Amino acid sequence: MFRTQQLKHALALYCHGNFRRAAEAVHISQPAFSRSIRALEEELDAVLFDRNTDGITPTLFGEVLLRRAQTIIEEAGELEREIGLLKDMETGTLAVAIGTYPAELSGSRAAGELIRRHPHLRCQFTLGDWRKVGDRVLARAVDLGFAEVSEAQTNDALVTEVVGQHRVVFYCRKGHPLASLSKVSKAELDRYPLVAIRIPDRVAASFPGGTSTEQSTGHLVPAIEVEDVATARAIVAGSDAVSGAALSQLEPALQTGEFVCLPFRVPVVRFNYGFIYRRDRMLSPAAELFMELVRHIEEDVAAKNCRLENELFQNEAAYSK
Q1: Inter-residue contact 196 to 222 (CB < 8 Å)
Q2: Contact criterion met (CB below 8 Å) for 282 and 172
Q3: 185-239 per-position pLDDT tens digit
Q4: Quick one: which of 52, 289, 298, 315 has the most CB atoms within 10 Å?
């Protein structure tokens, strides 16, 4: 039976239309390349390419092969990957795309624990825009996504599991014009720039602060858009901008008095992040372990946020629970 390498050679010949250029593209000699194409034709008992003086063109048989070749190559690669995953986690690999908020709340800690337990794993943890995580998972650029799931949930090719739904509180620096108020309205907050990452449309109507709406997606665009939570906190500390975060992300600065939580009484805004992966792709043991570590850490984060909320809001009956 033909090999996937021969299919790659057939695709290269079609792409370059010339034996010499195709052989150079796949880094083998022209005689070896010609033998590979000839062997493929013998295996299939069909002429796949017409050799003309002005170039190489696929026959009807060749067109059928070329339509299937890329899919066969990708599926063979997936088969090799899944067999490899089952053999040995210690020499395996893991690639995860993580949104900025879940990275800070649990993802980075889970990654550290994973490496502590399995130091020989080869891992890639990419921190970035939550909007791109689903696309990276679909393209098989990563094994797993860990980010806001609202858009991924609409794609049947993806599986999602929500693990983080922590309450978002809005905060400002000590000395901010709003810091001493007992009640803050959305109109008052809207006078100050919001510093945050891009905000999904599911909570756009509830988010305060200076923003605009991206018409094509409904996403809320903060007046000051950043890519990570630490930058947002630094900007809030040095300006009259406001931002939102889970209480556990603010605890040290709240204790020192650097930040003040704003008494903004609206329906509760919550994070909605979790795992994203392809429905047709088996998760590796490393991915499964990473997910399990995240789940345990998220339980601790939820308990901590609950404790901090009780301490902060115990005398704020007007807050929505």
Answers
A1: yes
A2: no
A3: 999 999 999 999 999 988 887 888 888 888 888 898 999 999 889 999 999 999 9
A4: 298
Specify which residues 171 forms β-bridges with.
Answer: 243, 261
Residue 97 contacts residue 135 (beta carbons within 8 Å): no
Residue 311 has pLDDT above 60, yes or no: yes
Which domains, ranges and CATH numbers included, belong to the chain? 4-86 (1.10.10.10), 89-165+272-308 (3.40.190.10), 169-269 (3.40.190.10)
DSSP 232-274: HHHHHHTSS-BEEE-HHHHHHHHHHTSEEE--B-SSPPB--EE
CA-wise closest residue to 109 among 308, 301, 309, 303: 301
Query: Using an 8 Å Cβ cutoff, are 183 and 316 in contact?
Result: no
Structure tokens at 131: 């909007």
pTM comes to: 0.71
